[in-house]
Design a protein that fits this description.
There is one protein chain. The chain contains 14 helices and 24 strands. The chain is an alpha/beta fold. The strands form six sheets. A four-stranded mixed sheet has the order 22-23-1-24. The chain has a four-stranded mixed sheet with strand order 2-15-17-16, with helices on one face. Strands 4-5-3-14 form a four-stranded mixed sheet. Bound molecules: uridine-diphosphate-N-acetylglucosamine. The site of uridine-diphosphate-N-acetylglucosamine has 21 residues, from helix 1, helix 5 and helix 6.
Length: about 425
């Protein structure tokens, strides 16, 4: 298992190209199951989660080609061509699905196209129970018959899905995406109320519309979809990763440097920009991206609460906490999306942070400095919070279980080292 070693204290300065968004790319890849023509995705990030999903799609019969880097665009992402000419299997097996929760996104497309699907109940990050009840209830509202047997969801719609009204009792990004895809091939009109408004949902809708779907309202809380008989091939460029951009913006502020984040979009980071501005994170729009720095030399404590988009993203909560460990004053960080998303707290405390958790809130008392330590990544975003802490800490930080990081951050050590960080990946054999 690899380790990442960081010697903290260097301000980060330079330019970072923001990759295509993992959370947009994954649903976009599953959209390839909706058509027998080729779906081409550009600006795809090179990440373990993408490979996991690619393996699952191949297993369903998708003919998949990865064409290296796309030199025609300013973005450095890869190009993937996917053609699901014939679906050879509608079963998504446990050994592939358990690696990544987003695998459940094959359910809607397979059911809509083939009339049945058998998908293992998912695994993924250990940040709470993360059920799929909203996905299943939504599909039932479109006429699907659902049974849970031996750890699998067995979904059937022998006569095809039929448009319906789905009111999500809770905002869910994945359920909105699954239902939006399924509804594209359902008979008649579907409305999704209390839908997720995340930019990744909008990106998926734009791609589906390019494939011939009739969708209105993506990005608002009611989405309407008029089913069509078939979708066709299309080429789509994956939106830039707002979470990666927000993470590096905080790295600039934490280390007292200035980073230009190429491809980053202010409209996708509005909550972070507005809520961290009073504490000293300066974000300026520049041509082709954003510039992040400290406004006046210090970072001050701030209270934040995670919420569905356009609120403060839960996927930036751990990194924000790391930023606040050395802020002046105290911060209250409240997590409302996932119930077990403070696993980075004990690790940050081992580096000298002062954090007390009370239920879903963490009180962070800013300390003058952190000290490097050997720490363990517990989930994807938590991993980067420890890297952030390591970048400001005195001495060396050694991050174990780097595979969590590799699920969602592309070439971290390369991107950070190019901006002045002392960071290396050490390959360890024999574990
Ligand atoms: C997506 C993102 C993830 C992000 C999360 C919230 C992807 C691949 N992942 O995950 O990075 O942290 O949105 O912004 O895009 N829930 C239910 N029942 C369900 C589905 C969800 O109770 O059927 C709950 C979840 O446990 C959670 C909340 O709803 O408490 C939001 O989850 P959801 O928006 O569905 O997250 P994901 O789509 O899994």
């Amino acid at each position: 298992m690899d380790q990442i070693r960081i010697r903290g204290g260097n301000p980060l300065n330079g330019k970072i190209h923001i990759s295509g968004a993992k959370n947009a790319a994954l649903p976009l890849m599953t959209a390839s199951l909706l058509t027998d023509e080729t779906l081409t995705l550009r600006n795809l990030p090179h990440l373990a989660d993408i490979t996991t999903l690619a393996n699952l799609l191949v297993q369903h019969g998708v003919d998949l080609h990865l064409n290296g880097h796309d030199s025609a665009e300013a973005c450095s992402g890869r190009v993937m061509e996917m053609k699901a000419g014939t679906i050879t299997s509608t079963r998504a097996p446990y050994d592939l699905v358990r690696k990544m929760r987003a695998s459940v996104l094959v359910l809607g497309p397979l059911l809509a196209r083939e009339g049945h699907a058998e998908v293992s109940l998912p695994g993924g990050c250990a940040i709470g129970t993360r059920p799929v009840d909203l996905h299943l209830q939504g599909l039932q509202a479109l006429g699907a018959e659902i049974e849970l047997k031996e750890g699998y969801v067995h979904a059937r719609a022998p006569g095809g899905l039929v448009g319906g009204h789905v009111l999500f009792p809770k905002v869910s990004v994945g359920a909105t995406e699954n239902l939006m895809m399924a509804a594209c091939l359902a008979k008649g009109k579907t409305t999704l109320a209390n839908a997720a408004r995340e930019p990744e949902v909008v990106d998926l809708a734009e791609c589906l519309i390019g494939m011939g779907a009739q969708i209105e309202g993506a990005g608002q809380d009611v989405i309407t979809i008029e089913g069509v008989d078939r979708l066709h091939g299309h080429t789509h460029t994956v939106v830039a990763d707002r979470i990666e951009a927000g993470t590096y913006a905080m790295a600039a502020a934490a280390t007292g440097g200035t980073l230009e984040l190429m491809g980053a979009r202010a409209d996708h980071l509005r909550a972070m920009i507005d809520q961290l501005a009073p504490c000293g994170l300066r974000i300026e729009e520049i041509e082709g991206g954003l510039r992040a720095s400290r406004a006046n030399g210090i970072i001050e404590g701030v209270d934040i609460m995670t919420e569905p988009f356009p609120g403060y993203p839960t996927d930036l909560q751990a990194q924000t906490m790391a930023l606040m460990t050395t802020a002046q004053g105290a911060s209250m960080i409240t997590e409302t999306i996932f119930e077990n998303r403070f696993m980075h707290v004990p690790e940050l405390c081992r580096m000298g942070a002062n954090i007390t958790v009370h239920g879903s809130s963490a009180l962070v008392r800013g300390q003058p400095e952190l000290m490097g330590a050997e720490v363990m990544a517990t989930d994807l975003r938590a991993s980067f919070s420890l890297i952030l802490a390591g970048l400001v800490a005195k001495g060396e930080t050694v991050l174990n279980r780097v595979y969590h990081l590799d699920r969602g951050y592309e070439r971290v050590e390369e991107k950070l080292a190019a901006c002045g960080a002392e960071i290396i990946r050490v390959q360890q054999n024999g574990e």
